Queue: 4 jobs
Job 1
Amino acid sequence: LGTRYWEAKSALPLQIGEVESVPSFKGYRKVNGHPEFHYEVNGVDVYELIEPLHTGLGIRRSFRIPNNTGLVRLAVDSADGVVAAYSAGKLKEGVLELRDKQAREFTLTHQLAN
């Protein structure tokens, strides 16, 4: 599998709405050789594509939540030597918050610092 550079610390890293909900795994498919996971959180479909970065060491997590209409929270766990960046939303105390349409498609990258 390779060297582990980062792993989520939170047991429930992605939350949709105001109530914490355990995700329900629905399956996965391969997109250009990379896994796209499908799960449901609080009754809402979530798709997460995980790909290696083309430059540097790290991963890009591309999220699609096509029917989102509320608040989405994603824990952005930091680790020594790993830099996180995001395409939308606001980071508040280690949690990325996205609202409504903003959360329908966004990316989060985790990259080893030089």
Job 2
Amino acid sequence: MNKIGCPICKYYQFDSNCTAFPDGIPMMFLSGEKEHTERMKFQENDLVFEWISPEKQGERRAEAIERHKQVAV
């Protein structure tokens, strides 16, 4: 079980969306309850979990900080 959930996947986007689930990530994956290592019947594409690179993790963190600053203003 992946306790970290979706934020470390390269397809994850903010607001609980991702390229694999553009209409919203199912809670079982978002929470880390279930790993998304196989395509699900209800998916419209073949994307599954892939680790995000360390470089992209840093970029994603910086983007999250900027989003937070904009909301806080």
Job 3
Amino acid sequence: MSIAVRPSPVAAPAGTAAVGRVDTAVTDADRTVIVSAWYPTTETGRPAPYIPATGPATQLQIAAESAAWLRTPGVATMAGAQAAATEVAPVAGDRLPVVLMSPGLACPRFLLSGLASDLASRGWVAVVMDHTGEAPAVELPDGRLAAGGPVMPDNSQYMRARLGDRMHDTRITLDRLPTLPIVGPHLDPTRIAMVGHSYGGLTAVQTTAIDPRVRAVVVLDGSAGWAGTAAPPTLDRPVLLLGSSELPHPSWAQFHDSAFDYASVRDGGHYTATDLCALGGGPDKCGTLPADRAAIVTRDAVASWLDRHLLGHDLPRATHPELVWHTG
């Protein structure tokens, strides 16, 4: 089987470095986590596929399953699209800061590709997880596809189980960072942040509350707690909530942190900080802000905030007409 190869419609990274990507698995006795590591490189070559899979048939199936869950037919057309990264290129640099990324509930990891590639182009290593058994479809190391089950956001038992699996996945990935192919020996374990979209934001906040390795958190239109699942924790590390044009999740009213920033994106939707808006996501998911502007605004906001709070750079925070800072 063959599929047409073409560039991705997702906006290109804004940084100065070329980008590499390697897909791999990290495991323990109970879970297998499939991750994509995006990183700076000095070489360009064969582009990595946008849909992380080993062959066209698998790409087609992952794209179709993801399109059905996201109710966005354009996602199904991404099989054959190329990512803004070279496959398994050598890494450039050493002691690189790390961003561990978690997608939204039942969302595929490729929806965070644009943000991950942009961070990599600015000198970060972005490690994006798929949450096996929840994501629409994940290719396992033996070639099998693990399909996600029914999604029940109103079922507290289901949501507790998903959060437990997600935090387990995060712990495995943090433990295995030094063993990741290509990038593992070049990571700085003292400079690790987490970025999560929606339920991935809750995953990031709850993980940070119990794991001191995570030094800063960015939540992309997510929550600090979830009723019947997890209460908002108290953190002593910096947190950025980057929300949509809607009011933030009510759990943030109970959140306590010594360094909390909140910004929102005018005319944005729940998926504004993800690739869905470039893949045909409608106003109900992406708001009315054009996808190219959404990418510029959200990527710049995340990167500049991480530079300030994890790298210690004395730089101004991002300013755009669409970006509203509610703190500081």
Job 4
Amino acid sequence: MHYKLTVLDKEFRKNSHLKKAVLVLLFLWLGGCSSAGYYWDAVSGHAELLNAQRSLDEVLADPAVSVKTRETLKTMLKAREFASQELGLPDNDSYRNYVDLGREYAVWNVVATAQFSLSPKQGCFVFVGCISYRGYYRQAQAQDYADSLQAEGLDVQVSGARAYSTLGWSDDPLLNTMLYRSEARQVGIIFHELAHQQLYIKGDSTFNESFATAVEQEGIRRWFLAQGNSAGYQRYQDSQQRDEQFKQLLLQVREELQLLYQAKKDVTEKQEEKVQIFSELKQHFARLRKTDPAFSVYEGWMAQDLNNAHLALIATYNEYVPAFAQLLKEKQGELPAFYAELKKIAQEDALTRRNLLHQWAKKAR
């Protein structure tokens, strides 16, 4: 540990990106519950990412960069301009530089729950409040942490994330991990991450992710409309319908597990029924995939050794999306008015905020 601090101290003196990373992560992500080792690993990981960034102009002019990558980056650069000019999202230096991390994911998140619970273990930080996972820049470190939690008897999931946001505290670059095959996903991830910079409520993950998802979906709709690409939007809608059908299947299983865990049964009986429910989920999915081969896109996820942790966050990204869509409709599609209303609501306490969202969701049905 002393060696690591000494090395970082030397780097800190000469490296402006490391200074920025320290400040960002000190005030944003890291709180009293974080160990010193986790702190410095996070700082060095973010600094490493910032150090590797190149301007998009430089990357696009580099003949060593593949034609496919350059074309994708051009699309994402257009989407970046579209986000600020047409969606009213922050106009800053985020997503105007590029980093090739040389790996599939930007970070790895660890989610954990108790054996008979679907409530995720919380990690609490200074400005973002309590969130339902813990992130790592290195997969091995994420796995080590997951193994330690599993040894305590917790259900654990380690999953890769293609992007993360510093909420505007730092100028986040585009990453190779964000270069999806689908145009909708390419532009959508920019809209989603910039939405976090537009509005973020400390400690309310469901609000934050649902809001970003709602902005992402509306942004994609407007993007394809502006491009005159109705076929592209139709493909996106078809994909969304499959996602929704798959999500509903998982939510149904989540509800079954919730009822089981609340029941007055002994540990052995609960564990046996838990195993059975997950087994039936896999069987149900196999039938679904046979009926429609397009569902094979979820095959990798379903092939995992599923447990509570895999279902803990399933509603987080979508629960309030219908409510936000209804509010935008009431604002006649005017995004500035939509954002302004939500910033007012952000000042309310969690219960008041939730009640307002439920009212809009009811209107949307």
